[in-house]
Request: fold
Amino acid sequence: MEIIISNSSDIPIYEQIKEQIKVKIASNELPENALLPSIRTLAKDLHCSVITTKNAYEELVKEGYILNVPSKGFYVAKVNKEIVLEEQLNKIEDCLDKAITIAKMNNIKLKTLKEMLSVLYEEEK
Reply:
């Protein structure tokens, strides 16, 4: 499971892990009942502390995205994909609202914003 951690981000590492796992669940890259790496394995793979991955998994359990099956591990729970997608769309909308506010404050035209969005969206990652 590929997760990319940014040490320069203001977002805590456990939150970065949690959000990327949620996106993988929403996109079905992690399907229902999929076994997740153990807390220790994920920490080793990401070069972070076990506490960090434990916090990410605990949050995902609380939010209903994964299940902790004692002595067996963590599994992807059955989740409503529409609700997960709606949550992600809300995050995008919040980011776009911020971009629009900055653009308006600096007299940047909608056409320019659309061009920027198009270029960024089509850019290969």
